[in-house]
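From the pipeline queue, job 12 of 40. The input is one protein chain; the requested action is below.

Action: predict structure.
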Amino acid sequence: IHRLLMRGMREAPRYAVLAQRAAAWFVAVVLLIAAVTATTWLLIDPALALPNTVSVLIVTCPCAFALATPVAAAIGVGRLADAGMLTVRSDAIEHLAQCDTFAFDKTGTLTLGELRVEQIATFGNLDAAQAMSLAAALEAHSEHPIGKALRAQHQGPVREVSDHLNRVGEGIQGTIDDTIWRIGKPAFALPAASLPRLQADHPTLMSSAYVVVALCDMDGNGALFALSDQMRPGVQELLATLRDRGVRHIALLSGDSQESVQQFAQNLDFDEALGDQKPSDKLTWIRRRQGDGARVAMAGDGINDAPTLAAADVSVSFAHATELAQVSSGLLVLGNDLGVIGEMRVVAEKTRRIMRQNLGWAAAYNFLAVPAAALGMIAPWGAAIGMSLSSLLVVLNALRLRARR
């Protein structure tokens, strides 16, 4: 977390980069104006050449330009930190304020990711204890919440697995005691011919809100695991806040079954709720929305979410997420309350608005003050006061971000 924070502090929002570039050019222009002012007044009234030139140099000191965006960005980052949100990339605040589309992963993102095994249905020559032992062995190195839940359920030594193969977004295959086993989505782990029979034998389990994981060998021995999860606090409030803040399209993209996703989303304000989504499917969805001109934000926590987190215009992950998801994200939620994402959107919009106000004020001040100083209308002491007041104004304007409303 500390490493990610240091990276975020080294980066700057787009407005800050533009302001820094403008300030560099501004210095060169000011020196040119000062030279022209000195030359002109030497011809008109040599006694006024030095004070008027000094006034130009003082009044155009680019302090307001230099402070316009960094102060607002720093206060915005601090406001988010107070709310439980870590800014990994400074430009994430600016991008978040412009997003009109938001996509969420389900397990571990909108849910707590603390899955529990609720039911085990075995078939063939396999009992529940054997099924748990095999599942724990195959999921021994998995970082997915499902793998962690299956390992936690198993009591006893973990069996050796050879020829271990991880099919991203589908499941795991491995050899245990010379038998090839698969675990993962039913469509991946089970023979196609057995799916209709199992759906008929276990209709409630296979078509419920449970997350269903299948285990099977090549001879048709296996088990079905039904796992449950809890919704994170603040999901409904978050979706309502995003709507209020101008997000036009909200989608749920999950690798869980379509039935499970529809059951989860039925009382929530989603425009789309898509299940059975592989990482490539999620990435295609993101690219398609961006191709239609949308600015997309993505929230996820797993290794499978990393491609979409990296592809989105701005991405949100969690402190408990996999490292790959964290480094692919611009913002990290430190707690379990998703309501902080809604507050993050509000702070992002206000931060962007204040950055623009500060840059506008700095530009207007210099546009008016430079000609006045060059014409001898501002004494050096007046130029010093004006420069100080302009810098103070942008700082005070940025401090409005500290206000809760």
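Job complete. The longest helix spans residues 339-374.
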